[in-house]
C-alpha cells in the first residue's frame, strides 16, 4: 500500500510491504545432505550402525524412515535411536543368513524420507553405500607359489606324521580352511583343514607313484587361493612282489590223480622278501577251490587229495574243462598282479557204467524165449556216446541167456 502526505511543503511517500510465506514450505523437515558415500565390508555383522540421518524441523518433530533402495530389497533400514530428531541408517542383514556380496551388488542407493509429525510435509535425501570387497587370503610360505620336497618311501612313517605346513594370513582375520588335491590322484596325503599341516595318510611302502604334485588351497569362506604347488618326490619305492612263472597255461587229462603237482611257483621280492609269506589263491569256477591246494614248504600247487571221499580223480572234463587259478603274493604292503594259472582239462574217453553193480531176475522154468524179466538197468556213458553193444561176460551158463 502506498500513501501520500505533505509536511512543511514536502511531499512524503509511505510504502508498506505485505510478505506472505508458504506455511507448508516453512514446515518441511530439513535433512542434512550426505556429502560422501559410506563403505561397509562384506563381512559386516547384522544390526550395524552406518551413519546418522540429521534432520531438523523447527517447532515440530522429524520422523524418518527408509523409503526404498536401489537395487530393491537392500538389507538396510532407518531406526530412531535417542531422541525424536536422531535417526540412524543400519545394516540389518541378508535374508536366510546370507552375506553382503561385492560381486553381486557392489553399491546400494538408499532414499530416506523424513516428515513432520502430522505427515503433511516431507523431504528426501539419497545415501550411497558402497560394499567393500573381502580380501583374499595370502599364502606366506617362502617358496610360494611352488615348492618341492623329497620323502624316503622306505621310512616307516605313521599315518598322521606331518612333513609340511602351508601358512597363510587374512586381512580381515577370517577363519581359514586348507585343502589339497594331488596329480595323479593318490591317497598318500591329507591336510589339517585348520592348521595347514600336510600329513602322511598311509605307510609309503605301499606307494607305487614316484612323483606327485600337491596343489594346496586356502579359503576364507569368500575367496579361495588355489595355486600353491608342492612337488613331492618319493625315493626308494617298494618293489611289487611277483610270481615270476605266472601267468601260465597247463593241461592235464581228466584222469589225473589227486596229489598231482600242477606247477611249482617261483616267488620274487627284491626288497622286503619274507620267505614265510604264502600266496592266497582263488579259483574260477566258484566252489571248486576244494580241488586244489598249495604247499608252502615246496611252493607246489597241487590237486587236492579229497579226504573222506571215494573220489580219486578230482578233474572231470564233462563238468568243467577249464580252471582259472589266480594267486596273490604280498609283501605286507603291495600285492603281486596278474598271476593266473590256466588249467585246461583234456577229455579222456571213459567206459560206460551201469547204475547198479548187481541185478536180480526171477525166471520161470520154460522153454527158450518164453520166460523173461526186466532188469531195469540204466547204462550211462560219461562222454555222452551212443551205447552200441550190450552183452554178457564169458562165464558158466552164459549161453543159456
UniProtKB/TrEMBL annotation:
Domain (Cadherin): residue spans on this chain: 159-249, 244-354
A GO term, aspect molecular function: calcium ion binding
Xref: Pfam families: Cadherin
Cited PROSITE patterns: CADHERIN_2
UniProt keyword Calcium present: yes
CDD domains: Cadherin_repeat
Family matches, as InterPro entries: Cadherin-like_dom, Cadherin-like_sf
Signal peptide bounds: 1-23
Keywords, comma-separated and alphabetical: Calcium, Membrane, Signal, Transmembrane, Transmembrane helix
An example Gene Ontology CC term for this record: plasma membrane
GO BP field: homophilic cell adhesion via plasma membrane adhesion molecules
Protein name, entry field: Cadherin domain-containing protein
Source organism: Biomphalaria glabrata
Lineage, highest ranks first: Eukaryota, Metazoa, Spiralia, Lophotrochozoa, Mollusca
Gene: 106076075
Amino acid at each position: 500500500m502506498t500513501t501520500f502526505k505533505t509536511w512543511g511543503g514536502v511531499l512524503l511517500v509511505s510504502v508498506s510491504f505485505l510478505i506472505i510465506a508458504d506455511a507448508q514450505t516453512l514446515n518441511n523437515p530439513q535433512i542434512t545432505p550426505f556429502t560422501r558415500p559410506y563403505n561397509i565390508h562384506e563381512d559386516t555383522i547384522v544390526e550395524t550402525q552406518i551413519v546418522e540421518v540429521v534432520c531438523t524441523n523447527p517447532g515440530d518433530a522429524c520422523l524418518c524412515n527408509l523409503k526404498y533402495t536401489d537395487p530393491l530389497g537392500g538389507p538396510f533400514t532407518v531406526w530412531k535411536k535417542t531422541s525424536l530428531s536422531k535417526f540412524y541408517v543400519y545394516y540389518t542383514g541378508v535374508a536366510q543368513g546370507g552375506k553382503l556380496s561385492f560381486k553381486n551388488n557392489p553399491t546400494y542407493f538408499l532414499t530416506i524420507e523424513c516428515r513432520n509429525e502430522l505427515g503433511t510435509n516431507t523431504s528426501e535425501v539419497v545415501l550411497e553405500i558402497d560394499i567393500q570387497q573381502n580380501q583374499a587370503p595370502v599364502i606366506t610360505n617362502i617358496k610360494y607359489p611352488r615348492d618341492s620336497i623329497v620323502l624316503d618311501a622306505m621310512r616307516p612313517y605313521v599315518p598322521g606324521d606331518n612333513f609340511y605346513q602351508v601358512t597363510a594370513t587374512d586381512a580381515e582375520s577370517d577363519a581359514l580352511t586348507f585343502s589339497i588335491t594331488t596329480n595323479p590322484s593318490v591317497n598318500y596325503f591329507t591336510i589339517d583343514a585348520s592348521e595347514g599341516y600336510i600329513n602322511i595318510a598311509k605307510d609309503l611302502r605301499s606307494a607305487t607313484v614316484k612323483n606327485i604334485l600337491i596343489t594346496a588351497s586356502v579359503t576364507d569362506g569368500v575367496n579361495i587361493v588355489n595355486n600353491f604347488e608342492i612337488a613331492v618326490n618319493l625315493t626308494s619305492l617298494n618293489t611289487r612282489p611277483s610270481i615270476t612263472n605266472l601267468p601260465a597255461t597247463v593241461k592235464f587229462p581228466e584222469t589225473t590223480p589227486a596229489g598231482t603237482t600242477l606247477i611249482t611257483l617261483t616267488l620274487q621280492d627284491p626288497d622286503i622278501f619274507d620267505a614265510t609269506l604264502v600266496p592266497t589263491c582263488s579259483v574260477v569256477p566258484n566252489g571248486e577251490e576244494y580241488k586244489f591246494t598249495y604247499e608252502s614248504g615246496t611252493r607246489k600247487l597241487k590237486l587236492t587229495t579229497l579226504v573222506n571221499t571215494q573220489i580219486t580223480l578230482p578233474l572231470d572234463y564233462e563238468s568243467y574243462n577249464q580252471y582259472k587259478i589266480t594267486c596273490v603274493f604280498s609283501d605286507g604292503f603291495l600285492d603281486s598282479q596278474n598271476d593266473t594259472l590256466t588249467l585246461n582239462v583234456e577229455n579222456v574217453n571213459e567206459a560206460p557204467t551201469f547204475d547198479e553193480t548187481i541185478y536180480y531176475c526171477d525166471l520161470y522154468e520154460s522153454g527158450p524165449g518164453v520166460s523173461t524179466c526186466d532188469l531195469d538197468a540204466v547204462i550211462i556213458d560219461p562222454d555222452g556216446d551212443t551205447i552200441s553193444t550190450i552183452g554178457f561176460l564169458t562165464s558158466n551158463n552164459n549161453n543159456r541167456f
